[in-house]
Give the backbone structure.
Amino acid sequence: MSVITVFSGTYCNDEAIIQGLVKQTGYRLIRDAELMALAAKQSGIAETKMERALAGRPSVFNKFTHERERAIANLRLAVAQTLAEDQLLIYGFAGQLIPRDIHHVLSICLIADFKTRAAQAAAALQVAESEAAKLLHKQDEERSNWTKAIFDNPDPWASDLYDMVVPTDKVAVEEIVAAVAKNAGSGTVGMTASTRKAVEEFQLAAQVEIALAQQGHQVAVHAKQGAVTLTINKHVLMLSRLEGELKSIASQVPGVKQVETKVGPGFYQADIYRKQDFTMPSKILLVDDEREFVQTLSERLLMRDMGSAVAYDGESALEVVRQDEPEVMILDLKMPGIDGIEVLRRVKETQPEIEVIILTGHGSEADRDTCMKLGAFAYLQKPVDVEELSATIKRANQKIQSKGAGRV
């Protein structure tokens, strides 16, 4: 027996094809939602964050938090565990996490001409084709983000990513179903002793990846007959120290017989490896229209292992809050457009869990009283000693962590 994975563009007759395959093969249909629920249950990561990892653009904080990579690692483990069964039809993004060396998995891509899709979307949604095209571009961008993250290939329809790429605007649904079912049932696609072993190795690699992610590490993992290879793709100043720590963590995972490390091609690019420190806030939003000041402040916080993003006005800050959910906000009061007090008011109305530290050079005692009544964590004056600010941020983070522990 075999497993079929289907990845599709929207408005490509995909649902009709999926239902036809279920009826034709009798395989159990597994959608992304089921796999995300399993991954969320095992990891404690919210399903909403799993969804963003699959389809959304990376958060502005991701280079500090590695949230997307951790979500994908946990989703990969859920997929690996699911592959203990066969006769599965895995539909969505998650099936692309399966390594190509698991040969009883038949990977299918469904796609149609963009103009045909836009016409179908316009009819289904009862909107103009121009509006439908905007929606399709956004949905295609999500798929491009995903294949870029998984394969380093921004073309989600690239033929080398699949066993079959099917043009659904040129082939009838019944013909597609028959062709896929025939290939899935052929002697070349079937579970054997070697493919079962490949699934076990996929599961082991996923477990090692999770163990490393839980300690703040992000490296590529491959397993073969109990031997695990860890590939470091970002530059690190003390490579031997990192290698020792990675080997120590990976060797404790049951089933691992030996561990080796190597550097990949990304190691030589202009980037640096940062282990995530879970005791420090990595989602700090700095909001100030003084660009030179706020950029310097961001760099000084990074030297203290605090990752931050920057917004130069209130409107931009509120958009970052809506999309990326910072933990701590450092907020100036006097800005063009929406001022700091109004930003504080809106943030506390919609996301009161965000701790807001006011940092201003123009505030009055009345402003201080207003901010503290609105829920600000602290009120600091410029110029501020960076050590005082760091200590205030750490206290805000401790408050956030204690609230989180209280909810568990």
